[in-house]
Amino acid sequence: MELFDTHLHLSPDRDNHEIVCRAQEAGVRNLLFCAGGVEDSLLLREFVRLHAGCFFAAGVHPHEADAFRGDLSLFDPLAGDPRLRAIGEIGIDTCYSFSGLEQQISVFHSMLELALKWNLPAVVHCRAAEKSDDAYRICGEELSAFAAQGGRFVVHCFSGTVEQMEQFAETGAYFGVGGMLTFKKADNIRETVLRMPEERILLETDTPYLAPVPFRGKPNAPEYLPLVAHKLAELKHLSVEQIAERTTRNAFRLFGIQEESAHGA
Q1: Which of 145, 120, 130, 149 is CA-nearest to residue 32?
Q2: Do residues 62 and 107 lie in contact, with contact meaning Cβ atoms separated by under 8 Å?
Q3: What pLDDT score was predicted for residue 265?
Q4: What is the separation of C-alpha 125 from the centre of its chain, rounded to a whole number of angstroms?
Q5: How far apart are CA 245 and CA 253, in angstroms?
């Protein structure tokens, strides 16, 4: 069984090299590390070079939007890097609003422009304020225009409604599914995941966040991704091997990775 963790972050207080080794021993052979800003993007470039099967995404997280002054040339040193497979993590977050909404939208738009320029998919963060669909509406508008120009994207850690999922799916969205699938009170997420187009489901951990049951509340790790795969297999009445094969194939397709380069990179 071979799995692809399509969304995780470096853990500041742990040995990230050991985390990768333990993940690959657990069958999580491929990993996409996502950045929060320019400095993080440059750091990831150096880190992933040390491990076969590791790739990275570069971008500005919505929480960091206020600190970004719009100079996309800061990302130029990353252009053409064979391990750079996406622009992200980018998007809109009105739940915490650590950055102003107007600046979040501006940065999100510029990051999507960079994704088009470099012909890379986008890794999208979309989280709305309680009892609001504002982030989904804004992301939907931006991503609809992005997709119309040939853009490809995944909405990571998707926790919206079935209707919101279907609206994203109409524009070609992929969907990241992670540890929340195992949470006891997450019936709404399980219902939505069962309605997702099977050819667009990706597995992720969002390490070090959102660890699956029975590790909920502890730091997450990509070695726990098989727990998510097993839960998805249970829900879909498929074998875990089938889930692994299909979601890994989906990830290779979205991120433009050939199997031989995944194992030998």
Answers
A1: 120
A2: yes
A3: 57
A4: 8
A5: 12
Each residue of 15-35: b (16+ CB within 10 Å) or e?
ebeebbeebbebebbbbbbbb
* % of the chain with per-residue pLDDT over 90: 95
Structure tokens given for 2: 């071979």
Whole-angstrom distance, CA of residue 90 vs CA of residue 111 = 7
What is residue 130's predicted lDDT score, i.e. its pLDDT?
A: 86
How confident is the model over 100-133, as pLDDT tens digits? 999 999 999 999 999 999 999 999 999 999 889 9
Q: What is the 3-state secondary structure (H, E, C) of the chain?
A: CCEEEEEECCCCCCCHHHHHHHHHHCCEEEEEEECCCHHHHHHHHHHHCCCCCEEEEECCCHHHHHHCCCCHHHHHHHCCCCCEEEEEEEEEECCCCCCCHHHHHHHHHHHHHHHHHHCCCEEEEEECCCCCCHHHHHHHHHHHHHHHCCCCEEECCCCCCHHHHHHHHHCCCEEEECHHHHCCCCHHHHHHHHHCCHHHEEECCCECCCCCCCCCCCCCCHHHHHHHHHHHHHHHCCCHHHHHHHHHHHHHHHHCCCHHHHHHC
Closest CA to 133 of 177, 102, 110, 163: 163
| Two structure tokens written together for 162 | 């079935």
Distance CA 146, CA 203 (A): 23
CB atoms within 10 A of CB 102: 9
**Does 161 score more than 80 pLDDT?**
yes
The pLDDT of 6-19, averaged and rounded, is: 97
Residue type, 235: L
